[in-house]
Amino acid sequence: MSDRSLGFRSPTASGCTWLLLFTIACTWLGFPPPACGASPLTLRLAPEQAKQGGVTVLSIESPAPLRALLVRVGDREVHAPSPDGLARVMVLLGIDLEQAPGIVVVRAEAVDESGHPRSGQRRLRVMDAHFPIQRLTVPRPFVDLDPATLARVNREKATLDQLWKVVTSAQLWHGSFRVPLDAAGPAYGFGVRRIINGEPRAPHTGVDFPAVAGTPVVAPNAGIVALVADHFFSGTSIFLDHGLGLYTMYFHLQESLVQAGQQVESGQIIAHAGSTGRATGPHLHWGARLDGARIDPRELMQPLSPK
């Protein structure tokens, strides 16, 4: 996995540095970047509104081929494919399940092959997903962790916080994603907000599939195994890197059949479902993150290209 890197590769980074200086100059002069002479980019979103935890596809079109591109959703930078002299680039955007409903500005800044700055923006409407709320009362020892366990949980969280920062600059997936189980029943639970013993807890960031222990779990698309771990809450877990900031994850596994650094293809068996970690019975937890946004992995099963 030596080819995995943070952010853009050097050609894009140099272009983005130029864009940053350009933006600073515009701000200093008191104008927004377009008023400083940037030619327009045409931006389209499909769809133009998406619910919390959803995805949309951004299409960026330029009158001239591009050599550098920077995309932001609100104040969050997302990882776009290197334009490599293309006049049209498509970017998959994720909306975090806790993104506030309302309008979010999607902005693109670019430099074309002649060195001219270009920019454009589009408004994305985020819809309230109306996630259900579960209120539970359980024995205190079930939710209050002892110091040693809490320290373990914090170490595991720190590992994942670092993992999300690693962005493979190439897109590894192809087309739409598939369900990670054959003949899977309906998934449930994404975004459920739990209140345990009167205290709000973190929302459920994946979907759960009922599964008999030992059921094969398959990769829903091509990628690289970023991490195989045994974590307190999620048990035996696999994290797949699909490139450009997109990760999928598989929890409570009976066993992993892959190792970190291994390339996998869509439909390849990577594990067997189980009930390891904090689980009440055999099932598969399937989650996804896109540029840090916690999204419903089922959203990846739709056609991932604009109309």
Proportion of residues in β-strands: 35-45%
CATH architecture of the largest domain: Distorted Sandwich
Treating each run of at least 4 consecutive H or I residues as one helix, how many helices?
3
CATH class of the largest domain: Mainly Beta
**Number of E-type strands:** 21
What is the helical fraction, as a range of percent?
10-25%
User: Please, what is the oligomeric state?
Assistant: single chain
Residue windows where pLDDT falls under 50 for at least 5 positions: 1-16, 24-35
SSE order in H/E notation? HEEEEEEEEEEHHEEEEEEEEEEE
Rough outline: globular
And the CATH topology of the largest domain? Glucose Permease (Domain IIA)
Q: Kindly name the structural category.
A: mainly beta
CATH superfamily of the largest domain, please?
Answer: Glucose Permease (Domain IIA)
Q: Give the termini separation.
A: 34 Å
Give the mean pLDDT: 87
C-alpha-based Rg, rounded: 21 Å
Tell me the domain tally. Answer: 2
How many strands, what sense, and barrel or not for the largest sheet?
9 strands, antiparallel
Write a structural description:
It is a single chain. The radius of gyration is 21 Å and the shape is globular. The longest helix is centred in the N-terminal third of the chain and has 20 residues, at 10-29. It has helices at 10-29, 140-143, 147-163; strands at residues 39-40, 42-46, 49-51, 55-61, 66-73, 76-78, 88-94, 102-112, 117-127, 133-136, 193-196, 199-200, 206-210, 216-218, 223-231, 235-241, 246-256, 263-264, 269-273, 283-290, 293-295. It has two domains: 10-127, Immunoglobulins (Immunoglobulin-like, Sandwich); 133-301, Glucose Permease (Domain IIA) (Distorted Sandwich), CATH 2.70.70. Strands 13, 14, 15, 16, 17, 18, 19, 20 and 21 form a nine-stranded antiparallel sheet that branches. Strands 1, 3, 5, 6, 8 and 9 form a six-stranded mixed sheet that branches. It has a three-stranded antiparallel sheet with strand order 2-4-7, with no helix packed on it. Strand 11 (193-196) and strand 12 (199-200) form a beta hairpin. The chain is mainly beta.
